[in-house]
Amino acid sequence: MKARRTPWWWYVIAMLVGLLAGMGISHLEETRGLGLAGIPYLASAVMVVVGFIVLYLAWQVHKYTTTDPKKRAQLKPMDSERCVNTLIVSKALAIAGALLAGWYGGQIVMLYDRFEAPFFRHIVIECIIAVIASVIDMVLGIISEGLCQLPPNMGPEHPKVVRKRREERLARFTNRASGLPMQAAGHHAGNNGADESDKWEKPCN
């Protein structure tokens, strides 16, 4: 299985979806007072802590996979399932960070004009801190995803193997193309020789 990096436009889409949802929840907060806007400061701190935990796990994967095989025996064994799970968590962290950044950003956009009111001021400040924490998580997720990229082995996808296979195909094509004119010339010369021999072997009447 070959994992690909998350396209950049996924983060843009996640932010836009979160932005629209955040604006919608802010509208409901203004009209009905559901109490869903904002986020406790502790939750924002936990978000950042989780992001750094994922970064540490990704760094462990990177360190293990890039260590020389002879020295790798000295490290704690790491199975492929853990590497894959760390990659999945890194991708999820980056997408969730983008989504939450848009979510709390949308609330800021809708509630900022009520900043003078103490209740909404508290919500806006919470959302600003949450946006910062979400962006940090998104960046940490992107970095962690990059650290989880495993070096290719000497299998069919290795760049050296692909380049060697391409060179071999080119060499076969070149040899085949250069051999055809020589065969044609040899065949033509053989026909001329046969005609000359037939001419001299005919009996005289």
UniProtKB/TrEMBL annotation:
- The UniProt transmembrane annotation reads 7-27, 39-62, 83-103, 123-143
Question: What keywords were assigned to this record?
Answer: Membrane, Transmembrane, Transmembrane helix
Q: Where is this region: Disordered?
A: 178-205
Q: Does the keyword Membrane apply?
A: yes
List where Low complexity composition bias occurs: 184-194
Top-level division of the source organism's lineage = Bacteria
Q: Where is the composition biased (Basic and acidic residues)?
A: 196-205
Q: Which protein, by its recorded name, is this?
A: Uncharacterized protein
